[in-house]
User: Fold these one by one.
Assistant:
Number 1:
Amino acid sequence: APPEWDWRKKGAVTEVKDQGMCGSCWAFSVTGNVEGQWFLNRGTLLSLSEQELLDCDKVDKACLGGLPSNAYTAIEKLGGLETEDDYSYQGHVQACSFSAQMAKVYINDSVELSQNEQKLAAWLAQKGPISVAINAFGMQFYRHGIAHPLRPLCSPWLIDHAVLLVGYGNRSNIPFWAIKNSWGSDWGEEGYYYLHRGSGACGVNTMASSAVVN
Amino acid sequence: VPFKPRAAGARAWEPSSPELLAPARFALDEYNRGRAAGSRAVLGTVRGRVRRTAQGSLYSLEATLEEPPCKDPLVCLLPVSKKTMLCTFEILNELGKHILLRRDCGPVDTKVTALVSSLFQPYPDNRNESVSSFLPQLNSDPLHQDFSMKITSVFKDFVATYNRTYESEEEAQWRLSVFARNMVRAQKIQALDRGTAQYGVTKFSDLTEEEFRTIYLNPLLREEPSKKMRLAKSLTDP
């Protein structure tokens, strides 16, 4: 892996979104990944619809939670994702109104990634932003800086929040992951969370995945 | 300097050994790199040993670093946030130049156990609770006597910043109580963090932990087994 990487500087990341009072982080994590994959494979950055996943992914549970692995399958079965503008976010489940004719992106497959953080960094730098899930300990009160909670407080076994790795680097010799969250830009560092890299902090390496766009 | 041989080429040093000061100061500078004046840690105790190698001198240091007291009112309200970090450093001195090989820092253990256990105290069910009733020591400890006034002021700023409206005066009082508890909780999380993160007031500061989990988090991630996905191919050499 290169020593640092930031997909935000390369135009592969849309603006920070806000899931509102709804446990739909899984949908935002997946659309963020697909936005990056589409940009890297097709050259266009499109902001994609989470509401389509809330309404039409019947395996997951909309605001009550979901799994990225199910969401990739739903996108494949539905026939793609509409854009944010065409199928805008409401923050609560509605009847599915997806139209295949309105889909602007598709995915062909999805893959699980290594739990080795060095390999994850290499994959990110070469292939794009990564959907991950973490233990959200402390994030309710996080303002800025690199979080590195004690391991017993932020167990990798208690994963409860899905987010998007968009980059990595070092600040004052401390290695970090740059993580796009979906709690609006008025949280954290303009919507981003910085987490210690290389120690499996908060289980960041346990559920890494990505869509595949051919 | 008294010393006991530990291994071939290694010596144990007294805490005050002058030879340790240069690498310790270098380690401190590395620790403080990027920090503004006034927010830098200062060196506490230092002890360690040195091993002479073909490459130069390899210093293994154990040092306490005193973090400065927190000054940001949005991050810390109680004057108890001074944090002592216990760090180990491996520093190589090669041809007079120091190189930091390894750094590992964490809060001093004696404070950790008490903080961890107090982190998981539940929020009270009593919705009539006030700020002063959840921290009775506020009424007697002169250090904390102005906490109630400060927290009320910061809560007012929070309400204005995030456009909060509450249904009744009782609800507002309850939220103030939750907010105050959360500020104390945030400071404990701050004291236990091993990185550079700052914790304090956020737009979620008037929610209990349970409310926050229920509304914003995703319990399915730990409750349901994930569908088996195909493993990604290893990257080829770039």
Number 2:
Amino acid sequence: LSLQESLLLKSLGLSAKPSPKAPIPVPSVLWRIFEQRRTLPAADRAAEDGCSLEEFNVPGNIIRVFADRGHFLHEGQPQGLLCLQKLLYFNLSVLEEDELLTMAQLEVRFSHSSYQPSGQGQLFELRLYQSSPLALQGPSPQGQGRKLLLEQSFAQLHKSLLFNLSTVAKDWRAFGRSLGLVLEISVSSSEAPAGRGLQSPCGSISSFLDTSLLVVSLSPQQCKASRSKR
Amino acid sequence: SAQRPRGTASALCKPRRLYISFSDVGWENWIIAPQGYLANYCLGQCPFPLTAELNGTNHAILQTIVHSMDPKATPQPCCVPVRLSPISILYYDNSDNVVLRHYEDMVVDECGC
């Protein structure tokens, strides 16, 4: 039976039977796509191209959501304008060698939005740095060995922010590394702390919840049927 | 030919219901959804003459003729899946990541000889 099972797992693209230890809740985007496909009529399901994902408009037949395995470098009381600094770490080594990574999207989530009826939400600045592998091992990846990937101002009106990291993830995967990033959220310099009265300058950023990385990849092993049809 | 193949309709090659429950194979702790699915399987005879409903290949048609002449030397053609459809499976991998994966050829929709 174990030989049969391992053969079956192999044909499903798994080297061994997974045994999850601390499973995260299933992200809503995955439930939504799963339900959409499950409710398709049989004829439509058979005609579906199993090697592309309409939802993201990219080739792929596997969607993974990686939980962040990093840690906080700074949270709580603001240091100057800096409200939050966190090392983000995503282990991309679980992708099989023959899998082609086609998309990576970072989600930064907050537990609630802080919509202000006046439309004058507090302004923050988000910076995302690529951390060097060496910096990932050290206690503080500040300063040297990091490269600014993106910078964006935002008013926290939404529960999550999405960033396309496809190019970075492809590059890192090509070098066989896991993806290490540093996330910084600070109060916009135009928002003088003194002008906010007794409120904490970091305000609603305390509702920061977590980050995750959605990765789409294509396993050629499961695309044989569609290729031959074409 | 309007002649019906030998054997009763229920004995002819066609899809049969098979529900696969992942808990039956001990996979319930890592597969999130579905908990099981209607996979079906093919079973039945492919007797001479092969009608259109039996989805016979040219080879199968010839094999049934040869079989009817000498059943001991040549077996009847096999009843096998000819159209399958995919399913998606949502599961946890060994690193506790959530994975949604699309698998081809998981459900038997049609059988043939």
